[in-house]
Design brief:
With 153 residues, this protein is mostly helical. It contains 5 helices and no strands. Keywords: Membrane, Transmembrane, Transmembrane helix.
Length: 153
């Protein structure tokens, strides 16, 4: 049992750090590059990225990290209390996973609908860049802090 718990915690550290890196590269590079493109091209490129990222490897780490976070929340309550594990799990689950589902995914869907319908998408793209990137910065920070706390625990 101890080996399994160590594997889960190691996976949590790795997956939290990978998600932080993914979010960081979007905030630091990809969104800046897309914002400098003509509106329609930037919006279409982001929509394509959102389609391509939905793949088994991404899902393994995205959902696996959420399951690891749930483990980090439950484990200190069942065994020996560890505030760092509990905090890491809560920070990742709420600050990364749930915020993705509640904020970033709906913004992705709204952008996709705007790209697929005729008309001016300038307003949608401008709001998307602002809101999506703001939430993405947050996801990057929470994921990184969760990885560090798990490592320290």
């Amino acid at each position: 049992m101890s080996l399994l718990l160590n594997i889960i915690e190691t996976f949590a550290i790795i997956s939290f750090a990978l998600m932080a890196g993914l979010y960081f590269i979007f905030s630091n590079t990809i969104m800046k590059a897309l914002s400098q493109m003509p509106t329609e091209q930037g919006a279409q490129a982001m929509t394509k990225i959102n389609d391509v990222i939905i793949n088994p490897l991404f899902f393994t780490f995205f959902f696996g990290s959420a399951l690891s976070a749930i483990y980090l929340i439950i484990e200190p309550m069942l065994y020996e209390f560890n505030g760092l594990k509990l905090s890491a799990g809560l920070l990742f689950l709420v600050g990364s996973f749930i915020s993705t589902v509640v904020f970033n995914v709906p913004l992705n869907e709204k952008l996709k609908a705007a790209v697929m319908s005729p008309g001016d998408i300038s307003q949608v793209w401008s709001e998307y860049l602002n809101q999506w990137t703001k939430w993405n910065h947050s996801r990057a920070i929470f994921s990184f802090v969760a990885a560090v706390l798990t490592l320290l625990s």
